[in-house]
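User: Reviewer 2 asked us to show a designed sequence for the structure in our supplementary figure. I'm pasting the structure tokens here. Could you produce the per-position amino acids so we can include them in the response letter?
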């Protein structure tokens, strides 16, 4: 299912919250809505679900207005909410509301619960699930619908570090098996890189960049977007140079910096050496078998030209 926003603007009362212009979510692909808290990501998801109506413009799902196409959408909210009763009853209710017969509901429910790792919890009261269990169950409920459009709001929220890493590794296969077109919300760069083919970056309710993941991450349109994506911004030629995260290495490169070492951290797989250039923290990773500099030393680090984006001075 293709989703389109045409000239959409949305406000909460008198407060503008989102202005997307024209935006397309391609059928059969996973798109990450990426941006800081308060940037409008969840609002955009609610517009796609038909739960909110735009003040201006149209939201279309395969050419139909979003509210009229609501039955084609599965939505996993950021906070898992269940009714009283067992987890099985809660998952079954979602399928019953879609009009599926009993045999199909049982098969769908069991398959999604097993894939999401909650099959052993089906007969437990939903109110007694832990945070991570509830989030997995929330995901199973949405994926069991096998909807043409699946919306996931922060699907990795509420997990401890180990649980998040496990689900992050499992999610690509789960989405391939149970979902068609997917739009997911995250504020985490790694999640977007691992899960999505396309990326939409929002800031203060506006679309800063949209397109194929590699292209968006390789060419941020402005310094603010570059900083959000983890680029280090340093003065260069009267403007700013944005250096991609992880691109700096010991020794000169196409783009070279000299810095005084302020911090040395042994990461086991390498040694992170950090200092400041123009007030910006800059870090490079030294190989674990290379001599590590000490605090106060001056070192030269460099990055390839492909990892650096130049922003001229205004005017």
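Assistant: Here is a per-position design you can include in the supplement:
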């Amino acid at each position: 299912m293709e989703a389109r926003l045409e000239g959409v603007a949305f406000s909460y009362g008198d407060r503008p919250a989102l202005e997307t212009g024209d935006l397309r979510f391609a059928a059969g692909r996973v798109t990450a809505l990426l941006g800081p808290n308060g940037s409008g990501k969840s609002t955009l998801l609610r517009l796609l679900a038909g739960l909110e109506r735009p003040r201006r413009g149209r939201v279309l799902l395969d050419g139909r207005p979003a509210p009229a196409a609501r039955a084609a959408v599965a939505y996993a909210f950021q906070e898992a909410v269940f009714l009283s009763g067992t987890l099985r009853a809660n998952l079954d209710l979602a399928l019953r509301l879609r009009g599926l017969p009993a045999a199909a509901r049982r098969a769908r429910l069991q398959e999604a619960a097993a894939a999401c790792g909650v099959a052993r919890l089906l007969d437990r009261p939903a109110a007694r699930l832990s945070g991570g269990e509830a989030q997995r169950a929330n995901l199973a409920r949405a994926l069991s619908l096998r909807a043409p459009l699946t919306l996931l709001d922060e699907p990795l929220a509420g997990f401890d570090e180990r649980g998040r890493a496990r689900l992050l590794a499992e999610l690509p296969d789960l989405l391939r098996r149970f979902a068609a077109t997917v739009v997911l919300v995250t504020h985490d760069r790694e999640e977007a890189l691992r899960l999505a083919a396309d990326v939409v970056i929002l800031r203060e309710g506006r679309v800063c960049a949209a397109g194929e993941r590699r292209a968006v991450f390789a060419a941020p349109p402005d310094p603010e977007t570059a900083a959000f994506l983890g680029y280090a911004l340093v003065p260069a030629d009267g403007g700013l140079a944005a250096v991609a995260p992880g691109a700096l290495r010991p020794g000169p490169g196409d783009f070279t910096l000299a810095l005084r070492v302020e911090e040395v951290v042994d990461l086991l797989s390498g040694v992170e050496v950090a200092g400041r250039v123009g007030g910006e923290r800059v870090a490079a990773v030294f190989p674990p078998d290379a001599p590590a500099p000490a605090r106060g030393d001056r070192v030269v680090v460099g990055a390839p030209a492909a990892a650096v984006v130049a922003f001229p001075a205004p005017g």
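For the response letter, you might also mention the following. The CA atoms of residues 4 and 60 lie 5 Å apart. The first helix runs from residue 41 to 48.
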